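Pipeline run #58 for the internal structure catalog. This entry was flagged by the ingest filter as a single-chain record with no existing model, so it goes straight to prediction. Upstream metadata was stripped on purpose; only the residue string is passed forward. Reviewer on rotation: M.T. Logging verbosity set to normal.
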Amino acid sequence: MQVLITGGSGFIGQALCPALLAAGWQVSVVSRDTRAAARKLPAAVRVLADIDGAGGADAVINLAGAPLAGRRWNEAYKQTLRESRLRTTEALLAWMESLTVRPAVLVSGSAIGYYGPSDDTPLAETAPAGDDFGARLAADWEAAALPARALGVRTLLLRTGVVLGAGGGAQQQLLTPYRMGLGGPIGDGQQWFSWIHRDDLVRLVIWLLDQSTLDGPVNGTAPEPVRQKDFAAALGRALHRPALMPTPGLALKAAFGEMAQMLIEGQRVIPARAQGQGFQFLYPDIDGALAQILQSQA
């Protein structure tokens, strides 16, 4: 069985590729920088500069896209966010349409930003889309993937939360201030933080490839979202450091502009469809997830 991945050399892809190989898949990754990708991935992964060189595939995993976090969202970068997602997805659809034998399944990336900022209401996959930039970006990304259904390809839209994992992830940039005793919640800390351990996200993607009756949106989040203040406290506990120094929302807005809303306002997202179909999380709670991540980095 052959799987083609876009965005396969990123933080998620670097864990996903070896897991797919271990599960018996033959893995190809499309990358603009083939040398850099080859350095990051197992030797058994075939790295391609262009999708047209892929031949065919039994499954496609679409993870390509410029990073949402860590950059100020000016108009130029918002355009980069859109183009990096939509153009790659559109190219995938054109490639699949050209094939005589098409993939059985497409797992296409999306984000919980689809729902927009929300209150305490738990958000399953049936919740409506929001109307801010992040929500429109996710909705347009999903819309670009959905025509695969007309080609006979089972299409899953993976709405991923904040990914935590060893050697990267959202917690990585927080480690230095927390270790110095300068960590703490963002804003008032009451906003919901919907997260997932990278190992569980990798397992979920591979599980989705085999769920022949499941298609449409799937929330890629742990079953126990937490408030931001509780995430800060959990990270402090894991590091045996205080977590009492809040980061003011105004400071984040000054540094990151519109992107800061992702941090200041949250969503309480639950993985209703995955759990309903029997998927089991290794790291359902934040304390267990952070303990494993920090232990593996020690």
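catalog note: DSSP finds eleven helices and 14 strands in the chain.
catalog note: The chain has a mean pLDDT of 93.
status: ready for reviewer M.T.
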